[in-house]
Amino acid sequence: MSDDTRTAAPLPEDALRSARLLARAEAAVMALFATRAYELGWTVRSKLSGILDHVTLSCDAGHSTQVTPVTALHPKLGSTIVRAPEGSVFLLEAGMEHMAMPGTRKLAAFPMALEECEHCARKRWEETASASFAAYAIETDLRILADAASVNGYPAKQVRCLHGHEFTITAMNPRTPGRLPGGAYGFTTGSDGAGDPCVTCRGISQTPKLVEFRRRAHEQDLMILDVMSDHILQTVRLCCVAGHLTSVGINTGLKRELLCARCSGVGVRPEPTVYYVVTDGAMVKPGISSGDGRGRLDTHRSQHGLGQVRRLITDLPVGAARDVERHVLDCLASQGIRPVMGSEYFRAAHTDRVLELADGWFAANLPNFPWAATT
Description:
Layout: H1 12-39, E1 43-44, E2 55-58, E3 64-67, H2 69-73, H3 75-78, E4 89-91, E5 107-109, H4 118-131, H5 133-139, E6 143-148, E7 156-160, E8 166-170, H6 199-205, H7 208-219, E9 223-224, E10 235-239, E11 245-249, H8 250-254, H9 261-266, E12 274-279, E13 283-289, H10 294-304, E14 308-313, H11 320-334, E15 346-347, H12 351-365
Antiparallel strand pairs: 1-2, 2-3, 4-5, 6-7, 7-8, 9-10, 10-11, 12-13, 12-14, 13-15
């Protein structure tokens, strides 16, 4: 008798037991598949006869798809043992025959796990993105002006950015999580919604001369009265801290030490010694000027209709006007009060808060300084 270990012949009971175990395993896979399909919002429309058979599913909106239970649950494994549904097959190139589907030599299909209905998921995302557009507009400092016509069929709004550029934008929040690839939404930002939605502002920020012009205007307390474009060959009107009105080309202005032509002519840059608050019932603007401040107030009245003077405090010590202005703007920003235009124009609803902050600063820092509140 040989010492080699011999394998006993399988008994009929073993074959029966294996068949039962296989049937139980297949039933478990079918149950898991049915549960997964239900969780994803699908309804099984054909008989579940086997894990390798194609099954038709449909969502509540009537969209349908065809999968196999084993491929839906384990796409990589399933794609090697079951033929893909018709329409998802592609022809393999020479040398790629090892990727062929069972029973074929040159056909393959991408393994696809069962997912929720793409059409319905996209629609839900669009509804959520539309509902959160108002919050997105606030977050990106866009002022909604009116409804607008859309070229892509989606809702659109006419908006204005802080720097005065008006444009049409799809009325959806591109930062809404769960966005699916595709969809011709026409967003002006990146795929994740990052960046400034105003194309003109982005163009200005990427043009060094325009960035420098804005920086110098801010540094010299100049108001840029015209809406800047993203071209350097433009002329804009300015109002300096002394109230002088001037027009200057971007290139010409950058060649001067002072952008204001009148101040540049005498070689003197006025120091702001005036603090004011003006409003018109729709907007309120705190600001600084020099001299008696009337020149700048006249500009506000003619350019923006801000004709009601709520505070006008003149002959301040050097540096005080800048300090109170910085205090008011910083406090408004820390309290979440955002400008509606530029960096110093706020909704008139915040007028009392602006006055309260300014009055508080004067009471704490210049308690004996003579000034009168206007109404």
